TrEMBL record:
Residues 1-29 are annotated as: Disordered. Residues 105-240 form the Guanylate cyclase domain. Pfam families: Guanylate_cyc (PF00211). Residues 1-13 have a biased composition (Basic and acidic residues). The lineage of its organism: Bacteria, Pseudomonadati, Pseudomonadota, Alphaproteobacteria, Hyphomicrobiales. This is Adenylate cyclase, family 3 (Some protein containing HAMP domain). InterPro entries: A/G_cyclase (IPR001054), Adenylyl/Guanylyl_Cyclase_3/4 (IPR050697), Nucleotide_cyclase (IPR029787). GO terms for biological process: cAMP biosynthetic process; intracellular signal transduction. One of its GO terms (molecular function) is adenylate cyclase activity.
Length: 342
């Protein structure tokens, strides 16, 4: 009996050693696992830092590429009218051969007797003059919301109503107002051009017509041109050739859209090439709301100057000068008659 107790007592005495041995083994395992986790965490940290660094490098590359694309896009935009450029880049217009018929107001202009002026200038002087003129006119056109179709030498083709429109009436009115501002700006530029050595005044002829035209992308799959074609374009071009130097000639179709806001003078019917019927034409004088009519005293002084001028005119005067003088006098008489009617 005592022997049995002794054995049990020894068993109880040895048990704590086994427990301590087991606890030490578990602690060692935990330490190993912890070290492995730390190593794995360090690896993940390095991977994260490398990913961030790589991501930043990619962002820098993307920013650089975006900046290059913006510069390239800005350069390409110079070859398109802003409205066309915007509609393409915003996805509102597909770059493919397509067209539609719309009622547009078409504007044509050129500089009267520009060939004669060009012959007197060196190519560098001519280039500077032409670029200055086109820049000034284009700034005015874009200010009024025009779509600039093309430049052909000193000639400009512009239209209103596509790809953006405010309605036929408002488009026509914007076009005529644009032409009036161009006319005024041309007068202001004469002093600058005289200083540049151009003795003969540059006068711009303008023609405007409102009609249905076909507008869209024309060309091939490799080269497209956004432009307008049709009878309306032809009539606007003919009206421009009929206009006196410095004058704005519009068709009845345009006049009917702007008559409540623009003062015009009917200039009769004209037969134009390619059109089977006569075109009723009007000369634009000014906006209805302009209140710059001279005072009575100034009118009397101007009348006296005209009388003196009548006696001072040379016996031989060129047809172009006579035509320009007659046009100016007719405009003055028309305004006097309007003032009398009021």
């Amino acid at each position: 009996m005592e022997e049995t107790k002794s054995i049990k007592s020894e068993g109880r005495a040895k048990a704590p050693k086994q427990t301590r041995s087991k606890s030490g083994s578990e602690l060692q395992k935990l330490r190993k696992d912890n070290a492995a986790l730390r190593a794995e965490l360090d690896d993940l940290t390095l991977l994260y830092e490398a990913t961030i660094e790589h991501s930043e490098a990619i962002e820098d590359q993307l920013a650089g590429q975006t900046a290059k694309l913006e510069v390239l896009s800005g350069k390409l935009s110079k070859y398109l009218s802003p409205q066309v450029y915007k509609s393409i880049f915003e996805g509102r217009q597909e770059v493919k051969i397509a067209s539609t018929r719309k009622k547009l107001t078409v504007f044509f202009s050129d500089i009267a007797e520009f060939t004669e002026t060009a012959d007197r200038l060196e190519s560098e002087e001519l280039t500077a003059l032409l670029n200055h003129y086109l820049t000034e006119m284009s700034n005015i056109a874009l200010k009024h919301g025009a779509t600039i179709d093309k430049y052909v030498g000193d000639a400009i083709l512009i239209f209103f109503g596509d790809p953006e429109t405010k309605g036929v009436r408002e488009d026509a009115l914007a076009c005529v107002r644009m032409a009036i501002e161009m006319q005024i700006r041309m007068s202001e530029l004469q002093a600058d051009w005289r200083k540049a050595g151009i003795s003969k005044p540059l006068k711009c002829r303008m023609g405007i017509h409102t009609d249905y035209c076909t507008v869209g992308n024309f060309g091939s799959g490799d080269r497209l041109d956004y432009t307008i074609i049709g009878r309306g374009v032809n009539i606007a071009s003919r009206l421009e050739s009929l206009a006196a130097p410095g004058a704005i000639t519009i068709s009845f179709e345009t006049y009917s859209q702007v008559k409540d806001h623009i003062v015009c003078r009917e200039t009769g019917d004209a037969t134009v090439k390619g059109i089977a019927y006569p075109i009723t034409t009007f000369e634009v004088l000014r906006e209805e709301m302009q209140e710059d009519f001279p005072s009575t005293d100034k009118l009397m002084d101007m009348s006296k100057q005209l009388e003196d001028l009548a006696f001072e005119l040379p016996s031989e005067i060129g047809s172009k000068e006579r035509e320009s003088l007659v046009s100016s006098l007719k405009n003055a008489l028309a305004r006097l008659n309007e003032a009398d009617d009021k």
